[in-house]
Design brief:
elongated; mainly alpha
Amino acid sequence: MAAEDEPPNYNRIAGGSLERLGALSDGVFAVAMTLLVLDLRVPAAAAIRDEAALGQALMALAPRLLVFVMSMMTLGIFWIGQQTQLNHLDRADRGLAWLHISFLCVVSLVPFSTALIAEFVTFRIALLVYWANILLLGALLFASWRHARRRALTRSDVTVALACAMERRIVFAQAFYAIGALLCLLDTFWSLGFILLVQLNYVLAPRLPVLRRL
């Protein structure tokens, strides 16, 4: 039977739109970022009697505000990472679409892990759940890029050096996050502080020789 007479294969044509995948990603990230702020609650008016009491109540929100900023940076870093991947793809396929949907599923868990660590900031389990959320984000982003390379979905101008640089960035970031998670054996605030520094490195992109390749 001639090739043109073969029945169409649904799996070969499904999930091929990079534009729709990008639009879905933007929506999920926007909702997740918006939900983060819901954990920053205004102090109860009944408990506030004067300026000093309001100041103390706001100071008590500091750990939640810190984790809020960290999670906003986390989502921003991974949104940029995903968009960078999509911008270097020529097309998508069903497997890539489901990898990115799985990635977005983990993105939607960030408000939960953020609320958990904010509520139990001194608990190692809460810190490890927060780190596991970041680990899954990195693992799925890495897997999606490997899938794209293996299935020849990348653009023709993507060199081996560029492809390896994108993978190396994810690996180095996850290694630093793992170090931050291990610091919870000393104190969870050490962990959060280290993770915050890692995020600031990737947000600010300092032009230091040691960090330039990361």
